[in-house]
Specification:
CATH class: Alpha Beta
Strand content: 15-25%
Strand order of the largest sheet: 3-2-1-9-8-7-6
CATH architecture: Alpha-Beta Barrel
Mean pLDDT: 97
Helix content: 40-55%
Number of domains: 1
Number of strands: 9
Radius of gyration: 16 Å
Low-confidence stretches: none
CATH topology: TIM Barrel
Number of helices: 11
Order of helices and strands: HEHEHEHEHEEHEHHEHEHH
Largest sheet: 7 strands, parallel
Length: 207
C-alpha cells in the first residue's frame, strides 16, 4: 500500500462530509485522478461510508480510515474494510492491530522521538503533523537524521507549494479543504472538485 501511495502521492482527507454528498464527492475525486481517500472516523457514519465506498469504488481507489486515535476506532475501521489506517497520534495498539490485519498504518507524530517510536512499532510511514504549523523547514531538519523513515506531510499543502513538500522529503501529502472544498460539496459543484483534483494530480505528475 505504501508503494502505491508513493506512486500516487496524494491522500484526500474527507472530514465531516455529509452522507448524502459522499458518493458523488468520491466519484468526483476519482474522476480527477485521486486514488487514495481517507474518511476520518470522527465523521458521522464513517464506518458505513468506508464499507459502502469499498463496494462501490474499491476497484478504482484505495479507501482508508483517518483519525484512528484508539483501538476501538481501529477495530471499527478494519471491520468496515479500510485498507489503511491514519492517526494524528502514535498509539502502538492501533499500529499493532492494523499490522495484524495486513494493513498499512500511518500514525501522526511531531517530534523525532515520536517519529522513531512509531516507525519502530511497525508503522511503514509516519504522518508529520501538524505541517501547517511546523513548516517545511522543520520537515527538512527532521529528514536529515531520519532519512530512512518515509514521511507523509499533512497540513498547509496547496498548488503553489506542493512541489516544495516533496523536495523537502515527503513521500506523499494528505490534503483536506484545499482539495475537497466542503462549500462546493454542499452546493453540488462536483465539477469544481474534479478540476481541482486534476490540477493537484498534474502538479505531482511532474515530480
Amino acid at each position: 500500500m505504501l508503494n502505491q501511495l508513493m506512486k500516487h502521492k496524494i491522500i484526500a482527507i474527507l472530514r465531516g462530509i455529509n452522507n448524502e454528498h459522499a458518493d458523488q464527492t468520491a466519484q468526483a475525486l476519482i474522476a480527477g485522478g485521486i486514488s487514495f481517500m481517507e474518511i476520518t472516523m470522527n465523521t458521522d457514519g464513517a464506518a458505513q461510508m468506508i464499507e459502502r465506498w469499498q463496494n462501490k469504488f474499491g476497484k478504482q481507489a484505495h479507501i482508508g480510515a483517518g483519525t484512528v486515535t484508539n483501538l476501538k476506532r481501529a477495530k471499527e475501521a478494519v471491520a468496515a474494510g479500510a485498507q489503511f489506517l491514519i492517526s494524528p497520534n502514535v498509539d502502538e495498539a492501533v499500529i499493532d492491530y492494523g499490522r495484524q490485519h495486513g494493513l498499512s498504518v500511518w500514525p501522526g507524530a511531531m517530534t523525532p522521538t515520536e517519529i522513531v517510536k512509531a516507525y519502530e512499532a511497525g508503522a511503514d510511514a509516519v504522518k508529520l503533523f501538524p505541517m501547517a504549523s511546523l513548516g517545511l523547514g522543520y520537515m527538512k531538519e527532521i529528514k536529515a537524521p531520519l532519512d530512512h523513515i518515509p514521511i507523509i506531510a499533512t497540513g498547509g499543502v496547496d498548488l503553489h507549494n506542493i512541489a516544495e513538500y516533496f523536495s523537502a522529503g515527503a513521500v506523499a501529502v494528505g490534503m483536506g479543504s484545499k482539495l475537497v472544498n466542503m462549500e462546493w460539496v454542499r452546493e453540488g459543484k462536483y465539477e469544481l472538485i474534479i478540476e481541482k483534483a486534476k490540477q493537484f494530480k498534474q502538479a505531482v505528475s511532474k515530480l
